């Protein structure tokens, strides 16, 4: 199982390199969240750093007043063979070995400042430090900033809440073991670490209680009530630690010597001698390592399940994002033409009823056009006063003899001129709908979402074609109206004449004064009847012209001119059209890297489990 601990270490390092780390705002699914961890939590001056140095057996952590740990430190311990040299490596410094641990401390300080600056701000971006030594056990610990109650000079007022929020983001995960460190010379009820641990782990099944500074308690007092679980019970036994004194630190007392002094303290202590076998930093390290192995073993199925789920999600998203753009000019042209065809297919589906939108065109012909014709001001044009005036003006200096034919023509022409408005409105309404369908089709073409420049170009080309179709359609419908004015339907007036004669024969006494109101009313009635007949014709022929010139042409040749232009474009132009949205490019790259990480992690975990 030690191989699994080392494997988890490697996966954590790979996760951090890709921006996936506990406590961070991960835009992608997080593998880190599924990995078991041990987080070290304590208030400032609780002895947290000394505990870590005792476990490692090296003096390597920054010290000072105030907040010293301002970024999470992922401390990965690797046990090596006896007699081998101790050294440290940082993830951000590839293949650089540190054998001088004073330089390790300085690099931690420098790397912290690279992210947070010289200020006292904190950052959730972790520092990864691996230590290889025969004096450690295989173990990974995450050293978090010390909890504090008051902001000091140079810190923002929110620092207290910021630190607690960062620490809580780690320890609230069910895969995180909490190493809660409290000083023995303070009341355990006031411990910041235990207070937070109890909030996120009320049953205590993930919490290890560590008491430091046992040797600094007032004479005649001890911490047995806590250590033996009488005043604060946890699922795991409390562990007492005796750190180096400040004098030892100042004198650079060797950590191995400090470990020996710690063992001697517990073995000879009248208060803790009976507990000496399970006290001290060495016991704590072995206990944590053993438990971490057990947790990893139990979590392997859920880790693999999470990895498999994330692999499926990432592969699905990469399919939606599409493949990276080819460099070859021919391949780029092929890609562009393929996306244009996909757009045209969706556009045609909107027109043909496969998608919503095309039915609005039928509404123009079935409702808007007839309604607009019915609302034409023909009654005003064919009023008695208007008819008298137009007929009189048409007669000129000599009144008509039998029927005012020229007056009829001018009345009809004037009436038909009103039809130009509804005809033009129908063309423009269909044009507006077609432009809207272009926008909808662009938005619904998944392949185009990656390429905003190409979207703009296709919309411009489509709208340019639609404008040409509109102009041609407008000419056609106005020509239909003009044709009705140019040549009147003679049969209508012949039948009208026959009907009038029949009326005269059947009623010989009925005569109409050709200059009286009755005569002019009859003319208005005849013209209105003729216009009604023509209106029925135009209601049928205008839609035909619009569909033929606009809708049909849009289906057949919407992007024909664009195709002709793009096929002659240089490679640089094609590259500009396939200039992807930078956010999508970044997303694809992140997904691809994260997918690679998950697949590698799955293979290595599978291999480690089979080996075991």
TrEMBL record:
Gene3D superfamilies: Dynamin, middle domain, P-loop containing nucleotide triphosphate hydrolases. Keywords: GTP-binding, Motor protein, Nucleotide-binding. Residues 520-612 form the GED domain. SUPFAM superfamilies: P-loop containing nucleoside triphosphate hydrolases. The keyword GTP-binding applies. InterPro entries: Dynamin (IPR022812), Dynamin_GTPase (IPR001401), Dynamin_GTPase_CS (IPR019762), Dynamin_N (IPR045063), Dynamin_stalk (IPR000375), G_DYNAMIN_dom (IPR030381), GED (IPR003130), GED_dom (IPR020850). Belongs to the TRAFAC class dynamin-like GTPase superfamily. Dynamin/Fzo/YdjA family. This is Dynamin-related protein 1D. It comes from Camelina sativa. The lineage of its organism: Eukaryota, Viridiplantae, Streptophyta, Embryophyta, Tracheophyta.
């Amino acid at each position: 199982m030690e191989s699994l601990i080392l494997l988890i270490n490697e996966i954590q390092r790979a996760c951090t390199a890709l921006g996936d780390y506990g406590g961070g705002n991960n835009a992608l699914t997080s593998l880190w969240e599924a990995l078991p961890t041990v987080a070290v939590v304590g208030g400032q001056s609780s002895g947290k750093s000394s505990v870590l140095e005792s476990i490692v057996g090296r003096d390597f952590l920054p010290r000072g007043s105030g907040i010293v740990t301002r970024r999470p430190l992922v401390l990965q311990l690797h046990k090596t063979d006896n007699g081998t040299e101790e050294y440290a490596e940082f993830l951000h410094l590839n293949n650089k070995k540190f054998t001088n641990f004073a330089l390790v401390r300085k690099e931690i300080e420098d790397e912290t400042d690279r992210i947070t600056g010289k200020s006292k701000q904190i950052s959730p971006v972790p520092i990864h430090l691996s230590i290889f030594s025969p004096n450690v056990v295989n173990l990974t610990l995450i050293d978090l900033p010390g909890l504090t109650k008051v902001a000091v000079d140079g810190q923002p007022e929110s620092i207290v809440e910021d630190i607690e929020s960062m620490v809580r983001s780690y320890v609230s995960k069910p895969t995180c073991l909490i190493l809660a460190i409290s000083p023995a010379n303070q009341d355990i009820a006031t411990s910041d670490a235990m207070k937070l641990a109890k909030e996120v782990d009320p049953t205590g099944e993930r919490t290890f209680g560590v008491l430091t500074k046992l040797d600094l308690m007032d004479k005649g007092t001890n911490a047995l009530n806590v250590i033996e679980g009488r005043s604060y019970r946890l699922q795991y036994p409390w562990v007492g630690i005796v750190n180096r004194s400040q004098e030892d630190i100042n004198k650079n007392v060797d950590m191995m010597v400090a470990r020996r002094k710690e063992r001697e303290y517990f073995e000879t202590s009248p208060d803790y001698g009976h507990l000496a076998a399970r006290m001290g930093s060495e016991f704590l390290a072995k206990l944590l390592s053993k438990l971490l192995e057990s947790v990893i073993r139990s979590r392997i199925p859920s880790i693999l399940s999470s990895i498999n789920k994330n692999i499926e999600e990432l592969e699905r998203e990469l399919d939606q994002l599409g493949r990276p753009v080819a460099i070859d000019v021919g391949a780029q042209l092929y890609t562009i033409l393929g996306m244009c065809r996909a757009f045209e297919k969706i556009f045609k589906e909107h027109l043909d009823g496969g998608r919503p939108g095309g039915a609005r065109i039928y509404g123009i012909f079935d409702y808007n056009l007839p309604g607009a014709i019915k609302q034409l001001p023909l009654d005003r044009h064919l009023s008695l006063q208007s008819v008298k005036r137009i007929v009189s003006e048409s007669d000129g200096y000599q009144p008509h003899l039998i029927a005012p034919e020229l007056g009829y023509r001018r009345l009809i022409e004037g009436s038909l001129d009103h039809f130009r408005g509804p005809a033009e409105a129908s063309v423009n309404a269909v044009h507006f709908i077609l432009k809207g369908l272009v926008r909808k089709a662009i938005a619904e073409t998944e392949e185009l979402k990656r390429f905003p420049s190409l979207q703009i170009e296709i919309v411009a080309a489509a709208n340019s074609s639609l404008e040409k179709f509109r102009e041609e359609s407008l000419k056609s419908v106005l020509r239909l109206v003009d044709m009705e004015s140019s040549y009147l339907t003679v049969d209508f007036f012949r039948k009208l004449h026959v009907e009038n004669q029949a009326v005269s024969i059947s009623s010989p006494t009925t005569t109409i004064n050709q200059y009286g109101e009755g005569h002019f009313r009859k003319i208005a009635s005849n013209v209105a009847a003729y216009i009604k007949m023509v209106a029925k014709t135009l209601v049928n022929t205008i839609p035909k012209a619009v569909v033929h010139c606009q809708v049909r042409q849009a289906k057949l040749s919407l992007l024909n001119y664009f195709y002709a232009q793009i096929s002659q474009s240089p490679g640089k132009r094609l590259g500009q059209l396939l200039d992807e949205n930078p956010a999508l490019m970044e997303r694809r790259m992140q997904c691809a890297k994260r997918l690679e990480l998950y697949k590698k992690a799955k293979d290595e975990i599978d291999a480690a489990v089979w080996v075991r």
